[in-house]
Structures are given as structure tokens and as C-alpha cells.
């Protein structure tokens, strides 16, 4: 039986399902008795809840970050929904489907990866082609690469987002390499596929999407270069100059020092990679922002990072009538 | 007989051809007699020259900016070429081919314009399609639009450069509109074709490429909007919202206030226009910079505006051997 | 009978008057019965309210943005006033005086406009004088121009604010034009009067002050230029150079690209316009900020945009005594 | 009997002690009767409270900023502690120990000052040595100098913080002056001791740490220079060049105009002062931020001003397991 | 007999006059004999010269910065003028009129100062009025204040420039104080007159305009405050708050930290002072730039600091004809 | 016989020694015969020269960047020295002492390295101690590490500069680690020694100091991390968390993204490393700038990068006397 999602809850119904225990706070009633306020979450959202009974037992058995089996009644409080929890039990992580608890790409991950592998399989440059054979032969890497999000918040911030973003860029790279003469198509494609590869270790995405210690200390650019170095060691006779040009694309793909690249793009392929990355990230980021906006006017709320409202189309007539 | 170009001159030869008189200075020999030092130019470069005889007559007859018919002997001075000019006569502008004196696109202008017109002819949106019929029916406009450069110095800074830049962007826009769902292809294409239309009046490009008074006072964004307003007045029933969205693309195509756009892009089409414009301008600008670099190392000289050297490919072995 | 204003309400009194329904939220009591929390507003401020009875009927009859006739008792809740609403009825917009619901200039609009018209009537330059005759003959324009605010929030953000700001600048412009020799007084005055003219369409100010779609897509600079273009078309033989210089003043009046002007001021009149505008906006903005601060110390709260506290005068003795 | 501190309060106990009345608001119960909500504070934190009885009498007797003797019962409300206040009486400021109400250095102020005085006593330069004799002979100055905090919030933001910061820098200055040849050790030390001297008047720190009117109007750099000028007037024959170099160190110690120094450091001693100041301030600021973080993960919360999380050491295993 | 100025020299004439020896370099002819190349200057410009004879004697007698009596023949060399110097003798500084060698205001210094003194004489505030009596009674100060330039290069960079700039601002301040209600006219005027008073010591202007050591180490803001402190000490009972407000105007008159003010303007008078200062400096700076431009097109050369060309009026017809 | 250095040449003497041929240009006399103008260099400076005889033979035998044995007569030309070259022969690089041709540290390289090795030998942390044993056992690395400069131009831009800079920082790090409690001394020292290790490959310093291709494409931060990765692979059981913290110090040592660090310092040791590096680089950079300034006033010329003049001490009396 599929899990009822937070976005589907209605006041008055009973719930018997698994959620992620996002927050848990002990409080006290006026009579001195304790109670628990909790926040329960899945990939569709969050709902507040309260535990009036068996507070000590439940508080001892579950902690923040646990998956919990909840039996509750859905009510309303201050204009929002509130679960009045009857019981709450810890559930081992291997008994839940993580896809229920983290936002996930709407595309077919298997097909996306097949398409990417097909692209590298058609490369003319034998060294680059061989390099990707080494990457794709590493099952642990492929599992992480096809599961990782592309970011914590900004764009493609969901399971499979890295692959979706990379494939979209790879398709664009193919178009652009055909449009401008003198572009090394294989090198550009290789740079696209590897530019964010460090994100598989920069981020954690088992139960929630957040930075790892390594990610905060080193950044995905540094981690990705180290991963590439390791794989390059397994490709005999990889030309040193080509290795430097490929690394340069990872190093410079943010476009400038101000955005975290120690060096700016200095080859035409690195310049193109930077532009394709910016365009694809920006388009995805704006679309998700617009899609998530529940308001019904012509404009989204102000986007603090991009410093503007986005236009959603003409709304009902307004103005100085 | 084709004109001998500055780039083809060799020491020891005689010259009998037309050049642009770029500079002219009167000087005096130790014996008190005057002489002229001149700079002669065409689209391939500049050469210094000196006039020893009939100085007063020649000085009175020609002025900077004139086309001049020159008879001279090519010599060497301080390691460079120097023309010793025997005679110099003013030539009316309508007797010279301006293409000899200004750098010009290497593409076929007629074919490029045909391709662009074909694109607008296939538009589904009847209002936009009609708008471009009005633009293309204006012969004076088409003559300027197909001749104008895209910039004074940065990119596509040559006769026909605006058209070359616009067509390249239009092709990219077609690809990108097919890649992302939900993009209004006709609107994007219209924005691409009109985004720099104000450059036909922002710049002058009769004998040299420079800003006009109007260009410096108003900028091509403002001029282009005024040109669009005028043509919109000739399209009956053009929907006001669509007109605003199209104008918004011109207004915002530089991407941010810091780059001269009063408003940043707020629709997906305006965002894409900005990215395509930046990519195409940057690629052209780097390629011209690399192409013009006569040095033979692995790197171009430092590019002051882009704040980096560009890599031209591995050179001879260097380093800490 | 004049409407009782929000700022005049006192606990314990009864109210029977029209307010703007700024917010309306449905909530539920512990017994499951619904109630409404509302925010009622007029130009003097806002007050919270609650509706306990006939909730469904009232909720169905009024929506946010409506003018509503309210019968209520004023009480206190959590240290603030709260209206306990007995009944609430929708009132058509044409039955209310908008000036009651939007902040309005304290100056006499008619007198201000007369003074401005007198100034343009005394212009020596026949073209500029004629241009303003065309503007002032457009009743719809004059109605909007004398009613528009100068901004949504920053300065002169009230009905009539644009006119008040413009007149203040015009007076300063007259002084400055007399102080510095060689300034074209009529041109400076014309630039002052037209610099923000696009705000009549950039903003809506019927019931609240906010941006219009056109305003967000194009900005008042672009809109103002288009309005000027239209009026210039009605002045025969307006000299093109003068038109460019006048447009340049609108284009550049924000002083730099960073503040939204595509070109910086390049004539002495444009430079002066920018300085006068900055001074008058800043003075008004600080004064309103200080005037609205209810605290009684020597300093206003921190002004986030201007990044400082403002000094209000010596307060009671403090310090390291 | 030592005062019970806020951080030591436990639910269920009775309190009979002095606190600072940080906030006081009048509210009304549903029955119309008034009550007071208060915030009581000392150097260890704040606690909310409520006064149900004798509200009018108490409200008339105490005002915000007063020290108040409180008799209360400690309870819980919404998961936090709440004092139910029985009575509250104003206490004159001279009857409390200010150190109970403001955070204070953990070092021994007397020993720190002795060490600093010992350093100036060993100076070789007779003029600088004499200058500090004049400073140290001013009892009022010494009292303030040894009591002042170094900042309102950023670093060493506690009583005695200025002295602690200055001494730490003085010790570092001694090391650095020995490390680099050609540094004027006495001048560097003098600059260190005087660089923040204006903070004794820029800040008030009698009951709370905040800026004074003079501090906000002039800044500690300007105030410190004026204080130095006054003392220099009491040292006969102080060499003018040396006075300028010493003043220059105060003027430039923030390193650049962007950080509030009218001139950047232009002597080696001023450069070193700036670096030592930045290092000591930064280290203290980070340490206090880490020390105050109650969370138990590997990272502090995001530090808005320094724009990063800080690493607190490896926590429990997380990540993509 | 008035001195012939550099700007008046013509080729072929003889010169017998005093100049400033701006540069002096020893060189050697092919035959091994030494010669001197020199640069001679006065307030109208510079001219190159050469000394072929008596080189050793002359070289020993004059040094850079000296006033020198020159006998020479004016010739041409490489298209410019060149003095062939027959003899050159050092002239004591007190035998020359410094006004011949430094650019000087075109206004009457005595009249300007009288007008300023008249303004302070009419002040209503007895403390401020008395303060200026103290300033004006200091003859040495008045001599420097009426002679100092306002800057080295940017604006009013000539003898008497500080006074000219200050008086212009004082007149504007009077207008503005009358325009806005609630401005303390005397305080604003006092701030205007004193805001740049530190320039009399920040700059040297005996033979050339340059920074003094004190100026580079402390800046005119700091020096001016110290000068004000000294004079305030001579006014009995000057109110401390007023002293702080006056100092605040000097401290903040550059408008922001980025421009060298440790604190931004926080009173209405300080805000106005900053705006008036910026406007007057900018207008003067642009006018001098335009006035010095010898070119005859519509535009000045690019102004590096202000990052634009300035428009000088419509030139001959150009463009895409 | 030691080589005569450029700085020691005097007019009239004969030279018979090896120089670096920095520049070589072919030119032609008026009679059509070719001659060579050359620039000859060693670590003390450059001198111009000319070759009148056997031009073709010499031109064919030597190229820019060669070491050349020169026989010449030293003369003067236009106020500078000029070598009239009789003969010039190419010399193999292995027959010259590179130290003659590149600026070199004035410290004893062997002693500096011994001192650094002694420091790592005293480390308490066995893993870090072992890591440095691996580094020091790599002879090729040590040779490069003790020879590399620390920069191309900014600071320590001479052979041995990296070692000198690193040792100076290591000594400071020891002091600072003792001053602040809770600092991991070994980790800080390890970070200091490795922070710039990538410079041994970022720069070339065989004949001149310049960037390598790898340096420009990747930057020394990236190269250094790769070098560290390789050595870490040779230390069994190096704790992963410690490896990340050490890498983080390299990653973040420039302090912020704007200066090329992908992540800012997030541990107290990384923060200290950044401060010590900035202080030592800045001090060395200023000192070299002051030391190279031949002028005799109180101030250096304007330092473009640091945007100020530096004070060199009181000069002769100047000013408004």
C-alpha cells in the first residue's frame, strides 16, 4: 500500500504511515506534565504534530533524523494541519524507500545514464573514451553518480539531479560543438560529464540533502579533481597535456574566482563549458522556483539570490483603472 | 586591378594605390624645412610614411580621414616598413570600395540575411511574423542592418558583424528552444533578431567604426526600443502584452544593471537571450583575439578586459629542465 | 461624517466605518468551528481583527483588496488593539475616497501643479515651452502625473509624491542654474520635470502602491522615454539634437549603470539633474524615516538600505557614568 | 550571598534576587484586567516573566534599564522557563555589582594591566615612554581603559575585552618585532596600545554594551586621535614626526578605507599593527562563536558576517552510507 | 615687464625670462661630450630644452625645483617646440611671483574671503559665530586658507581653489537651507566652511601642488579635526553636543567609508553638506576637463576616473551618410 | 674569475663575459645595411647593446633566451650605457651558474632547509612527521622546493624565495601556536610548509621566472593538492580526517574566493595560516619595493597594486614655507 504523503493529508482523517522525524521538542503543560511537539516530513512537505500521551517512552525511543511509524489523527491548529500522535515507533532505514523522503528527478534514471554512456562510447579520442570506460566500470561510482543531486538548494536539488543536469548539458554541448568550428567535441563532452563529479562526495543524500564534512572543507571542484586523478592513473599512456586541459575545465567551470574557480576558463572548451553550465543551471533554477510558487498573480515572490521577481504570465486586470 | 593591401607590402617595392590617411603631422628638419609624417591605413593594417617633397602643397590638399591616392617607395626604418611618399592626392569617397578600408565579415552577407528572413518567414505567431515583414520591407533599415558592425572593439567589430552575430545567435536559439520545453520559440527568435538593432544608429561605420553622438547619449538599448516602437506602430492589433515582453528582452539582454540593462531578465526567453548573447559574443571575441596574436608561444598576451591569458596549444618544451 | 482612522482607534469604543481588507485568514477553534482573522487598513495604519459569528457568510462575501464596511467593538489582545467584528460588508470602490486609504502628500496638489506650469510657461526656449504645452494639454496625463507617487517605498511614497518631488527639484534647479554660469536653464528644468515621468505607468496607485507589469518589465526610464517620444511627435520641428539631449537626461538621471541608467550623465545639465535628484530623494527619505520612528532615544533604528542609524537630537543623559 | 544567575534557574524553585529589567510590556487579560510581561537579564542570559498582581503599582515603580529586586516562582511555559513574579522593587545602581550584569573577561584585569605597564616601562624611546607615563597617571582614563569592551558584538565584547585584546596584541607585537629586522619595536608597541583607545568613549558599558552618541557620530579612530592629541600636549618636546607616525597607526589600523580607515597603512609598523589586529580579533571572534554554539554536530551554524560555517571537529558518522 | 609664458612661445623667437626647472637630465653626445636635456615650466605649461654649452657649470649651479633665469632661442624638434638654452641661472624663490608658476583662481581672492566672512558675521548662533571670529583672527591660518588649492588634481586644483570651492558651496548651502524646512542654517554653513580646512596642511602649494608628509599620513579629515579642536579650545563654553555635530560633518563629508569617511552622514546637515560638496566638486572638475580639451569634435577624450566621454556640443556632421 | 655584473659596468671599459640574451632585434641603417640591437641581462639588471659587424653570422647563431659570451666595449647613448658588441657566441646552459642570471635569496639555502627539517623532525604527531619524511626523502622534490621562487613578481620573487617565505612563516607559526591555547601546532606547521608547495610546478625558474602551462591552467593550489595526494599515498594509515584538514589548509590559504581559494578558512589553524601568510608576504613585498626605489624623497612612487605610496622616513624639509 503506498504511503500517504504529507501533501495529501486532510483534517479529520486517521494516519498510519512512516515519516521522517525532522524535529522533536519537549515542552510542559501548565499542570507540569510534559508533551512533545514534533515535525514530520517526507518529500512532499512537512506537518506539525503533538504527542500528549506516553511522552517519556516515545521520547526515549526516537531521535531527530529517524524514520518513524506514526499512528495519528489529523486535526487543525491555528489555521494549519496538526497531527495528534497516538504512537510513534522507530523504523530501520533499510525498510523504507528513500525516494519517499527525498525529492527525486521526474526523469528515468536508467535511460538517462544509458544515453550518457552511449555518448562516451561514440567518442573518437581513444584516451577519453578509455577514461570513461574506467569510470563506468566502477559500480560504486556509478551508483553514486546516478543518485546524487546537483546542489543542496539552488538547482537540480533532488535525487538524480546531477545526472539530469549533466545529460542536459551534454546534449547542449553536442549542439554547440557542431555550431562553432574548431571545438574539440570529445574534450568538451568529457569536461561536461566530469565538471560536477565531485558532488557525489561533496553532498550527502541518504536521508536529506546536505553538505558532507569533506564537501565543506574542500569543495566539489577539489574533490572532483582528486577523483579524476585516481581514474587517470588507471588509463595507460593518457597524454599529460590532455589531462591538464581536462582538469582545467573542472578547475575553471565556475567562470571566475569570485564564484569559486581558482582560475578562469582559458581554452575555448572551458569557456563553452562555463556558459552551458550557467545556462542550464539558471533555467532549471528559475523553473523550479516558478513551479513551486503557489500564488496566483503575474509574478513570483522576490527571489533574494537572483534579486528579482519572475514573470509568470498576464494575470487578471490590475492597475490604475 | 585589386588594391595592394598594407599587409602585403614588402620593402623595396613601389606602390601606386589608395589608402585612408589616418594621421598627418607636420615636422621640421634641422635645416628648418618642413616635412610630413603620415599614417596610411586600410582594413589589413597601418604603415608609417614620410613626405619630403612638395610638403606645403600636399599638406594643403589632404586632411585626416581622407582617402588618398599615394605613389611611394617602400623602405625600412627602425626595423619596420616606411613609405617614402612621392605624391598624395585626395580621392572622393564614392570612388573607393569601403570594404577595402574597414574590416569586413568573411561570410556572405546576402546568404546570411536570406537565412534570417527565412526564419522569420516560418514563424507561427502572426503578429511577430508581420512585425518582421514590416522591418524587412524598410530598405534603408535592411541596408544598415546588414552592414553594421556588432561593436566598436569587443566582438564582431567589422562590417556585417551585427548580422553574423545575430544569425549565429538565431541558430543557437532554435536549438535551445527545442531543447527546453515550454519556451516560446518565436518570441525568443524575435528577441534575438532585435536585441542589438539599435547598433545601426549607435555606431557609425562609413569610414571607421566609432560611436555616434546619439549612441553615446542614449545607448543602443534605448535606440533599439525607439526603432521597435516605430515599427510596432505599423502592425495593426499587435497585442500589448506581447509588445512588452519583446521590449523587455531588449531592455534586459545585458543581463544586469551593472552591464547596462535597466532591468534584469524576468522571463525564460529573456534569460535564454542573455545567455546566448554572452556565449556567442565571448566565443567570437576570444577567437579574434587568438587569431590576431602573432606570437608563437603557447599563450596569448594578457587580455586586460577578460583578465587572463588564453591558451593556444602546447608550444615547444619549456620549464624547469 | 469623516471616517475614524486606524490611528485614532481606542480600546472600548465601537466602530462603524469603511476600511481596506488587507488580509483575511480562516482558522478553527478547538471545538472545530471556524473563525476569521483579518487585517483592516487605511492610510494611517493597520489593525488586527477577528470574526467569531456568521463566518461562512462573511468569508464568501468579501475578499482581500476589498473596501469593507465594518461594525465592530475595539478591544485589546496581547498588548495591541483588536477589533471584534460584528459585521462586514463589501463597498464598491467608487463609493470611497481613495485618499482615505493611501498615504497622500500634505501639500496642495493644485497649487503645486500651477507653480510647475507657471515655470514651463516662462521658458525662453520655444521648442521646450511648446513641448510642455502638449504635455499639459493631455488631461489624462495630467491627472496621473499629479496623482502618482514617486516610489513604492523609498521616498515620496504617497499620492502626489511625484509632483511634490518634481516641484522641489524644479525650485532647486532654478537656484543652481543661476549659481553656475553656462547652464541651459530651460533644458535643466525640462529634464527635471520629465525625469520620472515614466512612474505614472511604472506604478499602480489606485488602492495600494505597487509596480505594474509594465513597470517591472521595462522600468520607468524606458516608459518615460516612450512617453516623451510620443509627445515629441506632436511638436513640429523639434530640433533633433535637443531631443537627444533631453532624452539623455532621462536615460542618465540615476547617475550610473549600477543604479539602472544605461549611460552616465555626459552633459552638465544631466550631471546637475542627477545631483539634484539624489539630494531631494535622500532628504525626503531620511525625513520620513525619522518622522515615522516612534522611539524616544537619540537615534532611529538601523536603516538597512542606508546602513546607518540617524541622529534625532540629544536624548536623556546616558553613558559610562 | 552570591546572586543566582539566569543560567542556573530551574523550574519549581523560588527566586529572591536582583536582575536587570530588560523589557517591560503591559497587556490585558480577556477579563480586561492588565498584566505585565517582563524580560529579566544578567550576564548569563535572559528569562521571561509575568506579573499578575499589583500590576499598576509595579508598573509605576520600575522602568526598562532599572536594576530590580525580584521575588518570584520559576515555572515553565511553552517549553521554556517563566518567572511568575510576586514582587519587583527598583534597586539603585550603586548597590549592585555591574560585573553580575555584563559579560566580563575571564582574565585578571589587574595582572593584565600590570603586564602592559611593565612593557611601556621598558621602552627605549624616551618620548614614547614618557607619553605612556602621562596616560597611566590619568586615573580616570585607566579606570575606563581597563573596563571597556573591545566591541559591541564582534570580538572581545565584554568588560575588560579592550585590555585583553590589547595585551594579546602587545605580546604578539613583541614577537613579530623580533622576527623582522628593522622594525621600530617601541613605535609598534605604542601603536598597539593606543590603536583602540577611542573605544573607551565610543562605547558605553555601564549597564549594557552599546554605542555612545559621540561614538556613532565620530568613531573610535577620531576619538582616539583626539585623546592622543590631548596627552601629547602634556609631553614636552615630543618630536612632531614621531607624533605623526603614531597618529598614522591609529588612522590606518583598519587597513583600508572600506573598513573605515581614512588612509591605509604606509609604514612597516602600521602594516604590522593592522595584521596583528586582524589576526587577534578574528581568532577571538571565531572562538567565542564556537564556544557559544550549543549544537553537537561537526559544524557551527552559518556565520552571516564571515559567510561560512566553522568546523568543530569530527562528529558522529554521517553521510551516504 | 611681464614674463612671457610657455603657452605664448613661438618658434624662431628669443627668450629671456624665469621658469621653473621641472626636470634636468645629463646625456652624452656620440663624441662623448655631455649635454643637458631640461624641462622648463610655468603655470601655463611645459617646454623641452637642451643645453649644449657650459654644461658642467650650469649642471652644478641649478637643480630640479629651482626657479631659473633662462636665455634661449626657441626652435622646433620632432614637431614640438624646443628651447636651445644659452645660459641658465638660479633665481631665489622670493624674487619670483609664485602666481606665475602655479595655476591660480580667476576670481578675486580678497572679495571671496570678504564675502565668506560676511556670512559668518551674520550667524545667529553665538557659539559658531564666535568660533569663526577665532579662526579669522588667526592671520597665518587665513593666509593659508585663502591660498590653498582644493585638491592636487581632481577639482579646484589651483591657488585659491579651496576658497573658491568653499564660497561656492556656502552660497549653495544658503539656498538649500532656505529650501528645506528644519535645517540648522548656521550649522550647515559652519560645516561647509570647515569641511576641507585640513587641506591647508594636507597639501603643499609653495612651488607645486603636492601632498605633504602629514597629508599622506593622516588625510585632511584628520588634520582638519585637529585644527578645529585647537580653535574650539579658544571658545569658552562651546556646547559639547554642538562640537560633536560640527566634527561629525567633517568626519562624514565624503559620504561613505569607501570614499574615506570613517562614518557616513547621520544628520540632515551632514547629508546636505555631502551632496553640496559632491555637486560643486563634480561640476568644477568636468568644466576644467572640458575647458582644457583642445580637440574640436563633439566629445572630450575618455575621462578615466569618471569613466566616460563628455559632450561638448554638436560638431560637424558625421555618421553613416 | 667572477663574472662582471650589469650593475657594475662603467662607460669606457671592455667586457668579456656571459649574459642572458633577453631581446634581439634586426634593424637597418640608412645605407640599407642591417644591424642588431640587443638587450643583455643578468640578475643585477639589463643593458642595451648594438652589433654593427658580422650581423648575419651572429643573428643566425644566437636566439632570445640563450646564454651568450659577449666581447664588447661599454659606451654611452642617450644618457644610458650601451655595449658596442664585437662578438657574441652561444654558451650551453650547463656551463653557466644560473644563480648569476636570476635574482637569488640572500639567505643560506642549506641552513634554511636544515632548520625546516629540524622542525618537522620534532613533530609530536606521528602521521604528519612521517609525511614529511616522505617529502624530504624525495630528492627531486627537495631540489625544486629549495630552489623555487615564491612568486613571479609580488613577493619573494627570487630563487630560494619559496623556502625563505616558508621558513619565516614556520617560525611565526611556532610563536603563534604558543600564544593561543588550543591550536594544533603540528597541523599548523604542516599547513605552513605545504601551503605553497604547488609553486615548484606552477612556476618555471630555470632561466627566468614565469608561469608554466600547468601553472596557468591549474594554479598552485590545485597542483599542491595533487602533490600532497601522491605523498599521502605513501604514508600507511594516514587518518582520513587529518588528511582533509591538511588539504583544507592548502585549499583555503588565500583567505577567500576573491583571492582564489575555493573555500574560506573554516578551522582555527587554517585561519591562522591565512593571516601568517598575508603578513609575511606583505612585509616582504613592501620591503623589496622600498629597497628597489632609488629616489631620495620621503616616499616611494605610487604602488599600483597596493594603491598607496610608502613612507621611507623624513626627507629634507619641504612644504609651505
UniProtKB/TrEMBL annotation, chains A, B, C, D, E, F:
Keywords: Hydrolase. GO terms for biological process: rRNA 3'-end processing. Residues 158-291 form the HD/PDEase domain. The keyword Signal does not apply. It comes from the Bacteria. CDD domains: HDc, YhaM_OBF_like. InterPro entries: HD/PDEase_dom (IPR003607), HD_domain (IPR006674), HDIG_dom (IPR006675), NA-bd_OB-fold (IPR012340), NA-bd_OB_tRNA (IPR004365), YhaM_exoribonuc/phosphodiest (IPR050798). Pfam families: HD, tRNA_anti-codon. Gene3D superfamilies: Hypothetical protein af1432, Nucleic acid-binding proteins. GO terms for molecular function: hydrolase activity; nucleic acid binding. This is HD family phosphohydrolase.
Amino acid at each position: 500500500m503506498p504511503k500517504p504523503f504529507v501533501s495529501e493529508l486532510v483534517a479529520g482523517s486517521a494516519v498510519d504511515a512512516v515519516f521522517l522525524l525532522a524535529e522533536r521538542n519537549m515542552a510542559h503543560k501548565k499542570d507540569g506534565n510534559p508533551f512533545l511537539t514534533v515535525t514530520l516530513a517526507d518529500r512532499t512537505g512537512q506537518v506539525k504534530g503533538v504527542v500528549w500521551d506516553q511522552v517519556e517512552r516515545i521520547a526515549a525511543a526516537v531521535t531527530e533524523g529517524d524514520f518513524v511509524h506514526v499512528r495519528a489523527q489529523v486535526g487543525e491548529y491555528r489555521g494549519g494541519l496538526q497531527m495528534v500522535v497516538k504512537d510513534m515507533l522507530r523504523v530501520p532505514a533499510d525498510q523504507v524507500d528513500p525516494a519517499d523522503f527525498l525529492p527525486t528527478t521526474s526523469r528515468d534514471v536508467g535511460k538517462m545514464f544509458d544515453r550518457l554512456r552511449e555518448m562516451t562510447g561514440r567518442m573518437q579520442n581513444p584516451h577519453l573514451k578509455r577514461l570513461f570506460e574506467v569510470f563506468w566500470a566502477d559500480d560504486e561510482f556509478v551508483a553514486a553518480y546516478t543518485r546524487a543531486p546537483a546542489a543542496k538548494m539552488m538547482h537540480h536539488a533532488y535525487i538524480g539531479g546531477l545526472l539530469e543536469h549533466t545529460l542536459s548539458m551534454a546534449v547542449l554541448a553536442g549542439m554547440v560543438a557542431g555550431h562553432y568550428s574548431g571545438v574539440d567535441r570529445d574534450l568538451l563532452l568529457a569536461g561536461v560529464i566530469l565538471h560536477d563529479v565531485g558532488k557525489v562526495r561533496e553532498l550527502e543524500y541518504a536521508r536529506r540533502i546536505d553538505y558532507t564534512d569533506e564537501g565543506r572543507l574542500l569543495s566539489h571542484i577539489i574533490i572532483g579533481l582528486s577523483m579524476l586523478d585516481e581514474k587517470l592513473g588507471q588509463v595507460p599512456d593518457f597524454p599529460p597535456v590532455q589531462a591538464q586541459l581536462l582538469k582545467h575545465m573542472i578547475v575553471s567551470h565556475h567562470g571566475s574566482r569570485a564564484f569559486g574557480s581558482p582560475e578562469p576558463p582559458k581554452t575555448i572548451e572551458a569557456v563553452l563549458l562555463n556558459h552551458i553550465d550557467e545556462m542550464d543551471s539558471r533555467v532549471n533554477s528559475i523553473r523550479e522556483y516558478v513551479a513551486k510558487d503557489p500564488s496566483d498573480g503575474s509574478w513570483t515572490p522576490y527571489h533574494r539570490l537572483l534579486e528579482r521577481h519572475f514573470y509568470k504570465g498576464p494575470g487578471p486586470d490590475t492597475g490604475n483603472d
